[in-house]
Amino acid sequence: MKLCMIGTGYVGLVSGVCFSDLGNDVICVDKDLDKIKLLQNGKVPIYEPGLSELVVKNYKNKRLKFSNDLKKSVIESDIIFICVGTPTKKGSSSADLAQVYNVAKEISKSINKYKIIVTKSTVPVTTGDEIEKILQKKNKKNKFSVVSNPEFLREGEAIRDFTYPDRIVIGSNDKRSSKLMKSLYNPLISKGAQFLLTQRRAAELIKYASNSFLATKITFINEIANLCEQTGINVEDISIGIGLDKRIGGRFLRAGPAYGGSCFPKDTKAIVSTAEKFKINLSLVKSVIKSNKDRSKLLLNRVNKILNKKIRNKKITFLGVTFKANTDDMRDSSSLVMIPFLSKKGALIKYYDPTGSKKELDKIKNVSYVDSIKKAVENSDLVILHTEWNDFKSINFKSLSKRKKFIIYDMRNIYSPHKIKNQGFKYFSIGR
After folding, report:
1. Torsion angle, CA of 198/29/324/194, rounded to 10 degrees?
2. In this predicted structure, what is the pLDDT of residue 159?
3. pLDDT at position 284
4. Catalytic site positions
5. Is 305 helix (H, G, I), strand (E, B) or coil?
6. By three-state DSSP, how is residue 353 classified?
7. CA nearest to 390, candidates 327, 345, 310, 339
8. Torsion of CA 214, 217, 218, 220, to 10 degrees
9. What is the pLDDT of residues 290-325, one digit of tens each?
10. pLDDT band at 353 (very low <50, low <70, confident <90, very high)
11. Which helix (H) or strand (E) holds 123?
12. Residue 403 pLDDT exceeds 80
């Protein structure tokens, strides 16, 4: 099939590349010409394992194209995916849909035959209805269908998640688009992916409900970890014990910093905002949002105690600053709360991340990037393991601390407390 992906951010680029790898002809469109030129030269602007190789392979095989010509790309395609950003609106908790609706207006000018318009972006309930109204102003209804097809890609695992999905959700209000969308995904369905066909509004809500539930699991185990620290219980035993219950499951039950990234923070806010429009109070989700917001403050209070309330002039190292491993995404990472706070308290901060320095941290006083673990921990008073990169899982701290023993605060529980303490380090972790 001939597909058009509008937006070459995380969702649009990964999905477009993977669709081309399934044998479809895909045009990835973006108004940023510099980004388009970069992609045409085989360079990927985001960090995602395996993505660069697929870009080069499918671009070479001419199944994958990159363009800034939206009109031409829409005309040449059968199915158009809207994959633009839906960030939290400034001064509000609702999703900013300006990009989605602007794209819909542009698409409406170029519908020359029957086309399926798909929202791949995470959008609130009724967004598809609004897109349909926009398209109808310039086109008859029988010339297009509007479909919701939420993505469930985890950063760092996106290629695998696309290729071997738990489920494929299609929200469609007509048989024609339903049939064609199922045909598009047939290569994945034939390999065992569950296919769910539902109403368009339901598909829109499934995405928000999924992310809110996962955010709730993370927040729950973080709060249980707080209790474990005060009662001398290992939170990992609790995670295993409740996770073995099939009704609960073990995933997303690892205690750590506040959740972050491109999805959970904005989507929990957006579903609350949507519910309020319908005069529904999602008190549980509101509680999750508040608890997560408080999480970084709680961990910073512990840092203060670890350093005996003497943060000023202390040399503090962050190992990893992205919100999770295997991605360069800094959106709503807890490090963006912790590092500025410690800097204001007079700490001298170094950080190392496998994906390099971060512009978000460049202008913060007394914060510097170093290009190796060795340089990062050298002469440190406190080393904070913030992100669980594989690079950090087998660090020989003893060999890196010949001059000075530093304190280790493991916020991801990747080290054995017994082994680290036996090496002569003061060691702290989460809920243990």
Report:
1. 30
2. 97
3. 98
4. 263
5. helix
6. coil
7. 327
8. 150
9. 999 999 999 999 999 999 999 999 999 999 999 999
10. very high
11. none
12. no
Q: Are 94 and 268 in contact (CB under 8 A)?
A: no
Q: Where are the domains of the chain?
A: 2-150, 208-285
What pTM was computed for the model?
0.94
The two three-digit tokens of residue 403, written as one number? 């001059």
Q: Which two tokens stand for residue 136?
A: 């109808």
Just give the CATH number of 208-285. 1.10.1040.10
H or E segment to which residue 385 belongs: strand 382-385
39-50 residue pLDDT tens? 999 999 999 999
- The mean pLDDT of the chain is 96
- How far apart are alpha carbons 262 and 87 in whole angstroms? 8
**Confidence (pLDDT) at 327:** 96
88 secondary structure, DSSP code: B
In degrees rounded to 5, what are phi and psi of residue 308? 55, 40
C-beta separation of 371 from 353 below 8 A: no
CATH fold of 2-150 reads: Rossmann fold (3.40.50)
CA distances from 393 to 412, 413, 416 (A): 10, 10, 10
pLDDT of residue 231: 97
Beta strands in 208-271 (DSSP E): none
Measured CA to CA, the distance from residue 205 to residue 124 in angstroms comes to 7
DSSP state of 139: S
Is 72 exposed, middle or buried (CB count within 10 Å of its CB: 0-12, 13-18, 19+)? middle
Each residue's pLDDT tens digit, 178-234: 999 999 999 999 999 999 999 999 999 999 999 999 999 999 999 999 999 999 999
d(CA 417, CA 188): 43
